[in-house]
Design a protein that fits this description.
The chain has 126 residues and is an all-beta fold. The chain has a single domain, classed as Immunoglobulin-like, CATH 2.60.40. 0% of the residues lie in helices and 48% in strands. β7 and β8 form a beta hairpin.
Length: 126
């Protein structure tokens, strides 16, 4: 389903190392891929925390992912977050904690989808 390119050092090491290409073969397991677009926070949503709760193998489990720009030498993290859901048919709760402090929650979402969420504008008191 997803292809991932990993830099094994390239031309900047001595001796130069090869880059690697990994292919993730699709499985029967459920998943959810979330893409965030910041409006009040930075557009890439770097610093946002994304949490999901789902019932997997009969047990309610939670997962957390944080959007970050990169880690390590000459690398860039995927700005989308991916959750493995095993045999879950839906996500009980998706919670997004934006860097601005805005919190969004979505309930009972279908699994096996790519979801794009835009940060709502903050309403100012009058």
């Amino acid at each position: 389903m997803l292809n991932c390119v990993s830099n094994g050092g390239g031309e900047f090491t001595s001796p130069p190392e090869a880059n690697f290409l990994y292919r993730n073969e699709e499985s029967a397991n459920a998943w959810l891929l979330v893409r965030l677009i910041g409006t009040v926070s930075n557009r890439s949503a770097i610093g946002a925390k994304v949490r999901v709760r789902a019932t997997i193998r009969g047990q309610e489990l939670g997962q957390l992912r944080e959007i970050s720009g990169g880690s390590g030498w000459s690398s860039q993290n995927n700005l989308r977050v991916d959750f493995g859901l095993g045999d879950a048919t839906n996500v009980d709760l998706l919670r997004i904690e934006w860097p601005s402090g805005i919190v969004q929650e979505f309930r009972d979402l279908a699994a096996r989808q790519i979801l794009t969420v835009t940060e709502p504008l903050r309403l100012l008191p009058q």
